[in-house]
Write a structure and sequence with these properties.
The structure is a single chain. The chain is α/β, with parallel strands linked by helices. The chain is built from 9 helices and 10 strands. The strands form 3 sheets. Strands 4-5-6-7-8 form a 5-stranded parallel sheet, covered by helices on one side. The protein has a 3-stranded parallel sheet with strand order 1-2-3. A two-stranded antiparallel ribbon has the order 9-10. Helix 5 packs parallel to helix 6 and helix 8 packs antiparallel against helix 9. The radius of gyration is 18 Å and the shape is globular. It starts with 9 loop residues before the first strand and ends with a helix.
Length: about 280
């Protein structure tokens, strides 16, 4: 009997209970990664922000060291079974850069996701002016700005704004602004995520959808797959579908980040390792 291919993929986007809206301990997520046939798991919990911004859905600043220790102890516990790494999902909005520069320097991180969370009340209060199309434009402008800061390895769920008001999402109307953002992002070398959790959101398709993925591929933008797991059961969820979707659009490789360095994995090999 032929030996099964060795695991090569990582879960590159998952959370811990410190964000106040995830369930399960890190050890349960690590066990789930083993069951999924993954080589490793990178915890990327929501970063603390200054001035209690978005405090209800993220760790407090004084909990950051606890987060680092929690992931570190999980790494030790699973040594030799699955590779556990420390990452972070850091929100972007104009003006937060100095805070994040300091935060990212406090512990060795392996993967830093950049997110623009338009559904968060603090962000919406500041940037929503009553016009959803204008809000969508703001989102894609901020997404490009995030890439240009140099703070991030990957931009998470990069069409997330479509879930705020699905009825107001008209791809042909917003596409020129997406194109502008992607042209700016492509110049930075920052990767973008295919987030499998989108299938469970208000606009039920992965983030981003196929058309945006195609535009990313045309610009040579690398893709990282993440399940955005807020429960252990969702670790690695939808990876096979996502990989085949990328393959159908012309991608031959998928990326992971370790020690803030991008590594490419052939999609054929990644699929074989999961089957």
């Amino acid at each position: 009997m032929a030996q099964a291919p060795a695991p090569i993929l990582y879960e590159s986007h998952c959370h811990t209970p410190l964000c106040n809206h995830a369930e399960g301990e890190p050890a349960e997520y690590a066990e789930a990664a083993i069951r999924r046939g993954l080589k490793g798991i990178i915890f990327t919990c929501h970063c603390p922000l200054p001035d209690r911004i978005s405090h209800a859905v993220r760790m407090a600043p004084e909990e950051y060291d606890t987060y680092v220790q929690l992931v570190g102890s999980t790494r030790e516990q699973f040594s030799g079974r699955v590779d556990v790494r420390l990452g972070l999902e850091s929100d972007y909005y104009p003006g937060v850069e100095p805070w994040l520069e300091s935060l990212h320097a406090r512990a060795p991180l392996h993967h830093v996701l950049g997110s623009v969370h338009t559904q968060v009340p603090d962000y919406r209060t500041r940037f929503f002016r009553g016009d959803w199309f204008d809000y969508q434009q703001t989102y894609f402008s901020h997404l490009a700005e995030a890439a240009e800061t140099g703070l991030y390895d990957t931009l998470a769920h990069p069409d997330l704004v479509k879930n705020d008001s699905p009825r107001e999402w008209q791809l042909d109307r917003i596409e020129p602004f997406i194109l502008r953002a992607l042209d700016r992002i492509a110049k930075t070398g920052v990767a973008m995520e295919l987030n499998t959790s989108g299938i469970n959101k208000a606009f039920p398709e992965m983030n981003p959808g196929n058309r945006m993925l195609q535009l990313m591929h045309e610009r040579g933008i690398p893709v990282v797959i993440g399940a955005d797991a807020h429960t252990p059961q969702r670790v690695g969820d939808g990876y096979v579908i996502a990989l085949r979707q990328l393959q159908a659009l012309g991608y031959r490789d998928v990326s992971i980040f370790l020690e803030r360095r991008r590594h490419t994995l052939p999609i054929d090999a990644a699929l074989a390792s999961l089957q």
